[in-house]
Amino acid sequence: MKLANVTVIGGQWGDEGKGKIVDWLASRADVVVRFQGGHNAGHTLVVGNQTYKLSLLPSGIVGGTLSVIGNGVVLDPWALRDEIGRLREQGVEIGPDKLQIADTCPLILPFHRDLDALREDASGAGKIGTTRRGIGPAYEDKVGRRAIRVCDLAHLGELGPQLDRICAHHDALRAGFGQPGIDREALLRELGEVAETVLPYARPVWKTLHEARARGRRILFEGAQGVLLDVDHGTYPFVTSSNTVAGTAAAGTGLGPSAAGFVLGIVKAYTTRVGSGPFPTELEDAVGQRLGERGHEFGTVTGRKRRCGWFDAVLVRQSMAVAGVTGIALTKLDVLDGLDEIRICTGYGLRGETLDHLPAHAADQAAVEPIYEAMPGWPESTAGARSWRQLPAQAIKYIRRIEELIACPVALVSTSPEREDTILVRDPFAH
Ligand code: IMP
Residue 149 has what DSSP assignment? Predict the structure, then answer.
């Protein structure tokens, strides 16, 4: 049996229930690594009678597994300080032996947050519905080669020309929104203060990860958001600003493409989306309402109500293909318990044509009509099932049909938020 790395990614629009699966895998990994996104992600960890909320820190942190924030993440140092502080109050001490942060990580600065909110407020109906955490503007500055990075915090005395560049860019944008320019003295002072928190963790993490690989350590790459929010492959422009596919695990950490190992796509047994953008199988009726209520579909980070709809096999098939998924974890099956009929979208109609994929243009994406096939539901409860034998025959048929339609096998089925309520079909670490 060969032990491999595992990369976990979301197969839909985020919120697929990655948290529970990642926690389960993290307890068996030697290193847990975030490689994209930032504190727009969010998940709640329940250990014993304590509840921990994580946004930026990798999931291994509470259990004491070495946790790494890779270069592909955009890091808000104040959000990091607050998250570390909150965990410390709950008795979790986070020293540099437990957490390493890539010294090449670009920083999210206060004016990134301002710009995110200013743009959203000015966009009216066309807004993206971002988390307003400054994620997009920080990535723009990274590729615009203006970013201030973690390593710069150790050289604040030499930051002048870099600060001139980034401030000139943002002052012009801010002026367009009628906002005052950036107070550089205050920014430098605040950076100086927060540097004390960040710098002890700063490392060339690519080295740590290469050494871990060389010693045969198991690495868990923890993706955030989902493939349909990927800046290239998602429902552009209603996407996040990073690549959420498994390939980012390599570029976002400094490991080669073979490091990803088993790519586990987390897929919800129905569909949800937060924020704006096309959603072909959205249900704005009593069934949608029921899915939202039974599935507790409210955002962890922003508390927003999630939009709900039927399982869209067209989208998931596409996600599995573009992300290179090896097997899926199907989550929240129990939310479908008790429905008379369940529908699966198997194709789209667009102006008299039938499509087997999502078209690229936003207007076409908004115009596609789902083509459904219907299956009988199951009256029994699947909640808490831990083996196939505990599932109703109709639920097994639903899972098998999904596998067939998305052309990807099921590795795990999750039947409740409890860690043990999982049907393990194929162990991602041992493949
Ligand atoms: P941003 O990542 O804050 O720029 O938001 C861009 C889009 O991604 C919005 O539709 C957000 O609702 C969505 N988004 C960002 N992070 C998450 C997440 O962790 N779960 C679900 N949706 C997310």
Answer: B
Interval between CA 239 and ligand 1 midpoint (Å): 7
What is the reported pLDDT for 302?
Answer: 75
CATH number attached to the domain at 6-105+201-262: 3.40.440.10
pTM, two decimal places: 0.96
Domain 268-319+332-424 has CATH 3.40.1280.10: no
Nearest CA, atom 8, ligand 1: 240
Nearest CA to ligand 1 atom 11: 130
Annotated domain spans of the chain? 6-105+201-262, 110-198, 268-319+332-424
Residue nearest to atom 17 of ligand 1 (CA): 225
Residue positions counted in the chain: 431
| Protein residues whose CB sits closer than 6 Å to any atom of ligand 1 | 14-15, 40-42, 128-131, 133, 135-136, 224-225, 229, 238, 240-241, 274-275
Residues 246, 6: Cα–Cα separation, whole Å: 10
Task: State phi, psi for 185 to the nearest 5 degrees.
Answer: -60, -45
Q: Examine the residue annotation and report whether 285 is marked as an active-site residue of this protein.
A: no
pLDDT of residue 2: 53
- Tell me what pLDDT residue 91 has: 94
Which of 23, 39, 43, 116 is catalytic? The answer is: 43
| Weakly modelled stretches of the chain, pLDDT under 70 | 1-3, 431
What are 326-364's pLDDT values in tens digits?
Answer: 999 999 999 999 999 999 999 999 999 999 999 999 999
Tell me what pLDDT residue 3 has.
Answer: 56
**Do 270 and 335 meet the contact criterion of CB atoms below 8 Å apart?**
yes
Do the two domains 110-198 and 268-319+332-424 of this chain adopt the same fold? no
Q: What is the structure's pLDDT at 1?
A: 44
At the fourth CATH level, which superfamily is domain 110-198? Adenylosuccinate Synthetase, subunit A, domain 2 (1.10.300.10)
Assigned token pair, 345:
């979208």
Give yes or no: 15 in active site. Answer: yes
**Among 12, 274, 301, which is best to mutate for testing ligand 1, by the most ligand atoms less than 8 A from CB?**
274
Rounded CA separation 56/38 (Å): 6
